[in-house]
Design goal:
The radius of gyration is 20 Å and the shape is globular. Strand 11 and strand 12 form a beta hairpin. It has 2 domains: 108 residues, no CATH class; 83 residues, no CATH class. By secondary structure, it is of the alpha+beta class. The chain starts with a helix and ends in an 8-residue tail after the last helix.
Amino acid sequence: MMKKIFLLVIMAFLLMTITSCTCEPYLYDGEYPEVYSVVLDTIPGVEGYMLSEIYQNPRIELIEEDQFGRKMYLYYEGKSISTYSLVIVQRSDATKAYYYLNRNYISSNENNFTESNINIFKADNDWDSDFNNDECTSILISTLKGTSPLTYEQIKPFYEYVLPGDEHFSDDRWIEYFISDEYGRIMITVGARFEAKWAIMMFFPDGTYDSENGYLILTDFYTYQNQLKEFKENNNWNEPLE
């Protein structure tokens, strides 16, 4: 009898723990909120935490700093897209972090970046050169990932269109909010059910979408930056709404 009561108590505790983890937004409390903010603003599919037995901060390590204070970090949270990433932050202050859009990170499935790739990455980010403010994009520093302005019911029809049949889940477990632009357009990352397949979908502020041009199937999970840049340009990202 006592054993049954003990098991019931443990099950109740686990249920409360799972409920609290899934309902409460994760708050990053590590030492690199500027890097955390840049990653959430630029890398699709990241959730802002690692999940094993518990939710915990992603792994962020300072790798190198150049003579002008520009810094390169390693970011890891164990996701299928950009599993390991090197991220360069041009600079940061009390409220904002600055980076070069579309070239502020490189990714790999293992933490084994080659010296050649790192050197090219540094050159693309003006490593050991004066700051170029004209090239910088800024992001407000935050310790909390934003939430989607769209409901699952709004996302579902496009999700089922992009990943038809058995490819999509019947709920929102692999639907992840990515970013919004200055005019209210929204990007959502979705994963397939039975295979390693990811897509980025774009919605207009009212929840409508372009079923022909409004989604991008990622053909590579680590060197997709040019694909993503072209996808944004084709969908007038950060341009006034017509």
